[in-house]
Amino acid sequence: MRTVAVTKIGSLRDPDDQTRGRIGVVDFPDQPLGPEDVRIRVAYSAICGSDPHLAEGFFGTDVPIGLGHELSGVVEALGERAHRTGLSIGDRVAGNFLRFCGTCTPCRTGRQQFCEHIQDYNRPGMAETVTWHESQVYRLPDSVSLLQGCLLEPTSVAVRIADKTNIRVGDRVAICGGGPIGQLALQVMRMNGATSLTLIEPIAERRAMAQRHGAQHVIDPITESQAVRAGEITDGRGFDVVIDASGSSRAVRGLLDIAAQGATVIYGAMYPHDFEMPLNLSDYLYLKELTLTGLFVSPYAFPRALQMLPHLDLAELTQAVFDLEDAPEAFAVHVSGRYPKVILRCNDIVDEGAIA
Fold first, then answer.
1. According to CATH, where is 3.90.180.10 located in the chain?
2. How far apart are alpha carbons 106 and 104 in whole angstroms?
3. Where do you find CATH 3.40.50.720 in the chain?
4. Are 243 and 219 in contact (CB under 8 A)?
5. Containing H/E element for 189?
6. Is the pTM of this model over 0.70?
7. Which residues are CB-contacts of 201 (< 8 A; sequence separation ≥ 6)?
8. Domain 2-139+319-345: assigned CATH number
9. pLDDT digits (tens, 9 = 90+) for 1-46
10. Fold classification of 162-294 (topology level)
């Protein structure tokens, strides 16, 4: 089975060809179809911002490392007991790349993200097919195309971010980072009643994209004073909700200064594993009473993300599509930042879903 994988550990941004990480298309064994499993013929699989981190060895260095967890496709086969959710062969689907076991202590106490068996079905989906447990698979609405459907997983992250903000209608909201998660979070927060909705982003095209999708203000942190602009936008009060979707160690520290008293600050990205951020407990936790949190994965968010998909504007996130065999080029385009999202077409599948 042709699968996109990391074939050499190293940064994909390394200018030295000898040490740069590499992406290739390799043959992996077919995944077994268990009695409760669903085999999906993959239509589209999107590159996630976390994928370059896998190339850097973030989760291990034994290559090849199969990639892909944002995907859509068509049900190709069902295990003999895969009938609880009503799936049928030919259904257009997307899903959660993680299977939560449901039996360990975290799962049984409402904390699925810490499932002790979370890796059991962690199978690469940037491939011709992927086999998941039926609990991971969701049928797409007719109004959502397969191309749009591969964004179910990142949409679930935006939904989980919204959950963790505990946003109230009218809260002032700032988002740092105009990549896919930042852009999706912006649309979700707008639907949740955010005001003074602001994107902080150094790339002009991404600031403009955010304005097209509901941002009331944008800040260029390179040419503008982030603190001064935040004060102007919020009448000196600061933002009630601040979300980092950049993953930038240079950007995250300053977000505490633009947060209002009693605000919630969400660190909603992956960060360098050895990065430590200085934190003045007296200033930020005692005097300002900030709530600081992050997120790992998106338990309990997928059904609601599925409900959200028809209401999101996904056109600008689905314009860069490459064939599976062109994965190395697709990853080069991804790290260049030329497009906010890059997607691989893993199979040519006739799609009856319509792009709105």
1. 2-139+319-345
2. 6
3. 162-294
4. no
5. helix 180-191
6. yes
7. 176, 177, 178, 182, 207, 210, 218, 219, 220, 221
8. 3.90.180.10
9. 999 999 999 999 999 989 999 999 999 999 999 999 999 999 999 9
10. Rossmann fold (3.40.50)
